[in-house]
Write a structure and sequence with these properties.
Blueprint lengths: L4 H17 L12 H9 L6 H20 L10
Helix pairs in contact: 2-3
């Protein structure tokens, strides 16, 4: 189920805020990954790894942006 645009936007902002609050590198699902994201939401009950992988890939892209702009961050995976 896809939420109406207003609710989805609010949810994304809350998710972004919570990532920052708990010192987790945030992520943004860009247009080219949206279909993977929607599929992972649809398949959540059957396969939770899809959503995790999609979000981790988006997080890697966000880290690349931080690296490009030389913004320091702590990476628990390094």
């Amino acid at each position: 189920m896809v939420l109406p645009d207003g609710n989805g936007r609010v949810g994304r902002l809350i998710l972004f805020k919570e990532c920052l609050k708990y010192h987790i590198i945030p992520f943004i699902i860009e247009d080219q990954w949206k279909m993977f994201y929607y599929r992972s939401l649809k398949e959540w009950e059957n396969e939770r790894g899809y959503l995790r992988d999609t979000c981790l890939n988006a997080q890697d892209q966000y880290k690349a942006y931080l690296d490009y702009f030389r913004i320091p961050y702590e990476d628990d995976n390094s």
